[in-house]
Design goal:
The complex is a heterodimer of chains A (463) and B (54). By secondary structure, chain A is mainly alpha-helical. Chain A has 21 helices and five strands. Chain A is globular, with a radius of gyration of 25 Å. Chain B is mainly alpha-helical. The chains are: A mainly alpha (463), B mainly alpha (54). At the A-B interface, α4, α5, α8 and α9 of A face α1 and α2 of B.
């Protein structure tokens, strides 16, 4: 018994890592367990629509190229249903992300305690929680494969070709930081030059061959709009930032370890060159504010945690004798857990479960050839994802025929005839969905007998 | 739910086959690392094959 206890005591960082991972698992499942499909962010509905739509039209060459569909279609092909791909696989990827990060840190640092500290920081990172919650599915897969690429890079395995190819097809944006990093490593590291030349070259050619359409769309977006978000119009700049948490929010939630990260970069950067380059590249990409720059924050966060863990480890080693510092360190980690736990518990969903449940029943109430109109772009992704009807939403999707001024007339105009004229532009029946946030509009609809309330959130237009 | 497990199993199988064929050294690394490498490779192979076929 004493021997077993001693063995466990010796392996305490691994044992502690298991408990930290349990916290992580609860943290990631929390919103889904509490609010079900409503528990995740804005992109949930969009992904549901994409997964379903691309599989239903499998082999249709008129469909725009979308690399993510090769992942979702293959799972559908193996018998997984849409909601399992949407939630179970997403949660599984979330879990694997934590594991792969732990493995990568352990491999590069060869130190169990550093990997434990990195795991704690990763688990309690609010940026990572938000990233998962927002439901950036492709980005999440991209990050997983970026970390996997670091594993292949460490072993100089040519499987790097495959991981870069997958990143480039599923989420081309994730290829930018890792691609630049590998290019810099290619320049300064003679030993890895040949290996990186072959891996990078083959994967780049394959990406262009298989995902040419999507790559071109990104390039043309940069050409049409602007490479720098600060130069874009106010209306489009929000979308072009990548719509993730702001720098202000990030610094407020991560300042506890950002300082340690840069200290780690300064003191131990030379020892972990690839990671230093990765951190610097992401810092520059974010600072320049190029297209979708907020999404680079998540790569920055991962690299920052890597160096913060290294710095904290050596700092705590150097000050081992100080009882005060030991107490401060314990308080620091306790604060990280408290902050993360509090953030998780107080997180509110964007829509409520009963709204999603209602949206799911709409198909049974609305004829197949009718349009479903939502007056609020907030609900649009969910309405599109959880029904099979053609959705009209302000500024979104292919069926919106009104300009912003016309939407304003539809929302706030006094003249009912203007509303009817706008609705007559559509040659099919229209049903209107009003969520809890739109209830003020039911007073508008109730004023005229051309709008008939079907049930709770649903109104029919009768012109 | 059964489809989910079929997916996981197929991905692991694809990963193991690729490892056996091309990267046997990865089958000798620590368990957690091996699992991640097999699973990651499996997803890559399955998705890439699907992308090539369709």
């Amino acid at each position: 018994m004493k021997k077993e206890f001693k063995t466990i005591y010796k392996q305490w960082p691994q044992v502690a890592a298991v408990f930290v991972f349990l916290f992580y698992a609860i943290n990631r499942v929390w919103m889904y367990a509490r609010y079900s499909a409503a528990g995740f962010g804005y992109d949930t509905g969009i992904y549901r629509h994409i997964i379903r739509g691309y599989f239903e039209r499998l082999g249709d060459s008129t469909l725009p190229s979308f690399g993510f569909s090769s992942f979702s279609n293959s799972l559908r092909f193996l018998g997984t249903n849409t909601d399992d791909i949407l939630f179970l696989w997403y949660i599984l990827f979330g879990m694997l992300l934590c594991v792969v990060f732990y493995v990568v840190v352990k491999l590069y640092t060869k130190n169990n305690i550093i990997s434990l500290i990195a795991l704690i920081l990763f688990t309690t990172s609010i940026a990572q929680f938000e990233f998962f919650w927002w439901f950036y599915y492709r980005n999440l897969i991209g990050l997983f494969f970026v970390l996997l690429s670091f594993l292949f890079l460490y072993y100089r395995s040519y499987l790097l070709v495959l991981s870069l190819f997958i990143i480039g097809t599923i989420h081309p944006l994730s290829l930018v930081p890792i691609g630049i990093t590998l290019l810099i490593v290619f320049i300064y590291d003679k030993e890895k030059r040949k290996y990186l030349f072959i891996s990078g070259g083959v994967s780049l050619l394959s990406i262009f061959a298989f995902n040419f359409q999507e790559i071109v769309s990104y390039i043309s977006l940069a050409m049409q709009k602007t490479l720098y978000v600060s130069d874009a119009s106010k209306q489009s700049s929000a979308e072009l930032t990548g719509q993730f948490i702001s720098l202000d929010f990030y610094i407020r939630s991560a300042f506890l370890y950002i300082f340690f990260a840069f200290a780690g970069l300064i003191f131990y950067g030379k020892k972990y060159k690839e990671w230093s380059v990765f951190l610097i590249v992401n810092t520059i990409l974010f600072a320049l504010g190029i297209l979708f720059y907020r999404r680079f924050l998540i790569f920055f966060d991962v690299a920052a945690i890597f160096f913060a863990a290294i710095f904290l480890y050596y700092f705590l080693q150097d000050t081992k004798q100080s009882k005060l510092l030991r107490v401060v360190a314990i308080l620091f980690f306790a604060l990280m857990f408290f902050q993360s736990g509090y953030h998780m518990v107080s997180k509110q969903p964007l829509v409520w479960s009963h709204e999603i449940s209602y949206i799911e029943t709409i198909d049974s109430m609305v004829p197949e050839d009718a349009y479903l109109l939502t007056i609020n772009s907030h609900y649009a992704p969910w309405v599109q994802g959880f029904t099979n009807r053609d959705v009209i939403a302000p500024g979104m999707f292919e069926y919106d025929e009104w300009v912003f001024e016309e939407w304003q007339d539809f929302w706030h105009g006094e003249d009912m005839d203007v509303r009817f004229d706008l609705l007559r532009r559509y040659d099919r029946d229209i049903f209107i969905f009003l969520g809890d946030r739109d209830m003020w509009y039911s007073d508008v609809l109730a004023r005229d007998s051309h709008f008939i309330r079907i049930k709770d959130y649903l109104w029919q237009v009768s012109l | 739910m059964a489809g989910f497990f079929v997916g996981v199993f197929t991905i692991f199988l694809a990963g193991i086959i690729v490892m056996l064929l091309f990267e046997r050294r990865f089958l000798r690394v620590p368990l957690l690392e091996r699992a991640i490498l097999i699973f990651g490779t499996g997803i890559m192979v399955v998705s890439a094959l699907f992308a090539i076929v369709y």
